[in-house]
Design brief:
Layout: E1 17-21, E2 24-27, E3 32-35, E4 38-40, H1 44-55, H2 63-70, H3 78-91, E5 102-105, E6 109-112, E7 117-120, H4 130-133, E8 146-149, E9 153-154, H5 162-176, E10 183-184, H6 187-191, H7 199-206, E11 210-219, E12 222-231, E13 237-246, H8 250-278, H9 285-297, H10 302-318, H11 323-338, H12 345-362, H13 367-379, H14 383-396, H15 401-413, H16 420-430, H17 437-450, H18 454-467, H19 472-484, H20 488-501, H21 507-512, H22 519-535
Parallel strand pairs: 8-10, 8-11, 9-11
Antiparallel strand pairs: 1-2, 1-7, 2-3, 3-4, 5-6, 11-12, 12-13
């Protein structure tokens, strides 16, 4: 029995267990810490300390536990323990101030709060050595959501454009690494494959599932960027995108392209992983998380959200510390409450907030957790706090387009609807094909009603419906504004479309669930209520 109930090393079928987090790998057989393919030099006790914290990441590890496990019970000073903890943090890019991966809980102990994937199987020689020495690497299964961004190719025939395409590669690698659970091969390792095109071999050598290839070509005042996502195991093309942009400020263009790619890739990879999970006879916690996330991504109806919650709860039954599933469950609760899909709106929002506070105690730098918490605060008459949370999320991940949209919604709720459109346009600039853009368009529609610009409101609600026909609030908003512009017949059809998606919706629920006590907001809201009533939305 190990001290403090700490976990023993798990039995391994093939003699090796690797922990994957951020762009690091902790290999317990080789006793190596790698960042990408590069070995990070650390002292043996620092390795043991990391191993102990990561292996027992579902609990707080006390000082006594660490001393008993790492130092075998020998007397160790607080200064020596602190030195080793600081060395461990430094080795994985963390600090005592940020505590992004290793969190200190005063008077309790320490906990590893980063997202971790376990990979069983023989470790293989990664790029750099085996890939270029002629040695055939030993095959192992690639971790989920693992990707390499290969150096983009400059097809312009202009060497001066090399810095641009290399910048896209560098920035995209950095930005993708901010996405939770995504394992991204480090830039230096990726650049060792410059000019190579056999994606299946690259996948085997790097032990990753996906390869992103790209190219850029400048012609006169126009720049074209092509990208494609490839399954490294099969070589099948999963997704492709093309950007045609007028050449202006290359750095601004670079940022925009990287933001669009990062946002789109996140959704694409979740969808692909969910399809893999559907084929699994014995899905694990992450498989179930991906299925729940994909279920929400297909449409935010009461039925879809209930299905998603089922996946998230099954995932948490297998792994109570699955942060993705916790945030997924909170997002579903926040949507059910925020979109008036339940008479217990306040209870759903309160549950979401409790879950998110718990997540942030484990992972205080989790950008999406801050984002969703901001949304909950905005929906519960705390717009200023919500805006701060969204700004904190953007500081952690500049590509979170949804954070800009949430701020736009908050401005509407505090009676500043004139500002909403600017924030939504920024979200659309970062992610114009975002799977949740329909909600952003909806926010502008409501803001236009607040400004008495009813014809404009109709146009924005129509755009929202066209982007996603499976979101009930959009149909109800469209119905109300169609009444306001005199199109009663079409308004009634829109109301029926909304009720087909959410048969329990009624005006009473909507009126009780006001998200703000701002007088300007409430006045505009009453116009929407009257429009819904005339369109045939039931009172109760």
């Amino acid at each position: 029995m190990l001290p403090g109930g700490l976990q023993r090393r798990s039995p391994r079928r093939n003699g090796n267990l690797r922990y994957l987090f951020e762009d690091y790998t902790l290999d317990t057989d080789r006793r190596e810490l790698r960042r990408g393919v590069e070995v990070v030099s650390i002292a043996p006790q620092v390795f043991d300390l990391l191993d102990c914290l990561i292996r027992n990441r579902q609990r707080v590890v006390s000082k006594d536990d660490l001393i008993a496990t790492v130092w075998k019970g020998r007397i160790v000073s607080d200064a020596a323990l602190t030195t080793r903890l600081n060395a461990a943090r430094s080795a994985i890019g963390d600090t005592g101030e940020k505590q992004y991966l290793i969190k200190t809980l005063p008077r309790k102990g320490f906990r590893f709060v980063g997202a971790v994937q376990e990979d069983e199987g023989r470790a293989l020689e990664l790029a750099g050595s085996a890939a270029h020495s002629g040695v055939t690497p030993i095959q192992t299964s690639a971790p989920r959501l693992s990707i390499v961004v290969l150096p983009f190719v400059n097809f312009s025939g202009d060497p001066e454009q090399d810095y641009f395409v290399d910048g896209v590669t560098d920035n995209l690698t950095t930005d993708l690494s901010r996405i939770s659970n995504l394992f991204v091969i480090a830039r230096n390792s990726a650049f060792s494959y410059k000019g190579k095109s056999d994606v299946r071999q690259i996948g085997r050598e790097l032990t990753i599932r996906y390869v992103l290839q790209g190219s850029a070509q400048r012609s006169g005042k126009q720049l074209r960027v092509n990208v494609q996502l490839i399954d490294a195991e099969s070589g099948i093309h999963l997704w492709a995108e093309r950007f045609d942009k007028p050449v202006a400020d290359l750095f601004d263009m670079q940022d925009e392209i990287v933001s669009r790619l990062a946002n789109t890739l996140k959704a694409q990879l979740i969808e692909v992983e969910a399809r893999r999970a559907e084929r699994s006879l014995h899905p694990n916690s992450m498989d179930l998380y991906f299925q729940g996330r994909a279920c929400m991504d297909k449409g935010l109806t009461p039925e879809r959200l209930t299905q998603a919650q089922g996946f998230f709860q099954r995932a948490l039954a297998l792994d109570p510390g699955n942060i993705g599933a916790l945030i997924g469950a909170a997002s579903a609760d926040a949507t059910i409450g925020g979109a008036y899909m339940s008479d217990n709106r306040a209870a759903h929002l309160a549950t979401a907030e409790t879950t998110l506070i718990n997540v942030l105690s484990m992972a205080p730098q989790h950008a999406v957790a801050h984002l969703v918490l901001g949304g909950v605060e905005i929906a519960t008459n705390r717009a200023a706090q919500g805006i701060e949370e969204c700004e904190r999320a953007l500081a952690l991940d500049r590509n979170l387009a949804d954070a800009h949209a949430h701020i736009g919604l908050a401005k509407y709720l505090i009676g500043r609807g004139t500002e909403t459109e600017v924030h939504i346009n920024e979200a659309l600039r970062l992610s114009p094909r975002d799977i949740y853009a329909f909600r952003w368009l909806l926010y502008v529609g409501f803001a236009k009603v607040q400004l008495n610009a009813d014809a404009d409101a109709v146009a924005w609600f129509r755009r929202s419906v066209e982007a996603n026909r499976n979101y009930p609030p959009t149909h109800f908003g469209l119905a109300a504004t169609l009444v306001l512009v005199g199109s009663l017949g079409e308004a009634r059809a829109a109301a029926q479309a909304g009720l087909a998606l959410d048969p329990s919706f009624n005006i009473g629920r909507f009126r009780v669930g006001a998200s703000s006590d701002n007088a300007t907001y409430l006045a505009g809201r009453e116009r929407i209520v009257e429009g819904m009533r005339m369109a045939g939305v039931p009172e109760w």
